[in-house]
Amino acid sequence: MSEQLLDNWEKKSAEHQKLYKNYLQRANKKTVLKQLPALHEEAFEKINCLQCANCCKSYSPRFKPPDIRRISKYLQMKETEFIQNYLQMDEEGDYVAKTAPCPFLGAGNLCSIYDVRPSDCERYPYTDEDVLLKRPQLTLKNSTCCPIVYFVLEKLMKSNA
Which residues contact 71 (CB under 8 A, 6 or more apart)? Predict the structure, then answer.
């Protein structure tokens, strides 16, 4: 069943955007939050991020000050040098990667700074936390990029129909 669910997921996700939007608006928050940990776990058992890495190829996380300090120290660079080499300010005033794919995405879709990656990367795709409901626009965007978000939304809609 689950493998079929993932067949052609990008196309299905694009077709289901209106359904997802309506679902996220009317979802019972308590019910959904109780279901998320198990669905998140199930999705990660079935989907290998290293086969996809769409997030790293398409989007940039926000690099917050603690992330910048930690990563520049790890790379043995001054923070200003790290910012100058890798980051730019976006329209919301956040530091993001200058380039896509992420400059730290390496061979085999492995992250070269995985142990010190930005907190946005560590938390992505937010399928085990209330961000899924609190930021529906982000969830909708992520559902077109990440098969895990698609999987969790589809399972939620089936179980709470």
Answer: 63, 82, 113, 116, 117, 118
CA torsion sign for 113, 115, 119, 122 is positive
Rounded CA-CA distance 153/36 in Å is 10
Burial 78-101 (b: 16+ CB within 10 A, else e): eeeebbeebbeeeeeeebbbeeeb
Which ranges constitute the DSSP H helices of 16-145? 17-26, 29-46, 49-52, 54-58, 65-74, 79-86, 119-123, 131-134, 136-145
The model's pTM:
0.91
Condensed to tens digits (0 to 9), the pLDDT of residues 110-155 reads 999 999 999 999 999 999 999 999 999 999 999 999 999 999 999 9
Looking at every residue in the chain, the average pLDDT score rounds to 94
List all residues 6 or more positions away from 142 whose beta carbon is below 8 Å from its beta carbon: 55, 124, 125, 126, 149
